[in-house]
Amino acid sequence: MAKLIGFGEEVAGYKILVLNEREIRAAAGIMFLATFLSLMFIVFEGNFVPIKYVISIFLVDFSIRVFVNPKYSPVLILGRFFVSNQNPEYVGAIQKKYAWVTGLILSATMFVLMVLMNTYSIITGIVCLICLILMFFETAFGICLGCKLYKIFKKEEAQYCPGEICDLKQKQQIQKISLIQFLVVILFTSLVILISYNFMEKLQAKPEDLFKMASIEKAK
Description:
By secondary structure, this protein is an all-alpha fold. About 65% of the residues lie in helices and about 5% in strands. The protein has helices spanning about 20-45, 50-70, 75-80, 95-115, 120-140, 150-155, 180-200, 200-205, 210-220; strands spanning about 20, 90. The longest helix has 25 residues, at about 20-45.
């Protein structure tokens, strides 16, 4: 049982149990994509079946991560498959547990409300949005928002954070954002708003079938 139940791996050179951040980010990306596609079925077809399957899978997966062992999580195993040729990036396991407990609570809430009670409301919408934000930050930026709970409850700094952010004291030159770069972002945003305002009617027009239009023009 000692080999079955556990949380984190022993790796030479690391003082605490660690996990592979690369497979965690890959798993978060898979979960984000599954959730996003399920929401598209709701928005465009009013079909809640896919999201119910996704919620159930997430609940089981997070339960395995928290109560059994992350190495047996089906989604993490799938993530490991996709990044198996990349060098591991080790992160402290303990802070990830706090993040996954958060995921377990959120998925359990959704499971009760949407799967067992078969309901939807502003509550399920907000919870789903929170899940999407957490997964997006993890997979896109390597930022574990749920891991911040570790510092809140443990009152101590986490070790071996993604991107060595725990040890980062001063930004290198390549990491700094200059005034010109900041102005570029402001100008770009202003341009997008300007175009949206002036071409709103054109942008909102429903597109037509290109080949149908071509056949009409040919007929003329």
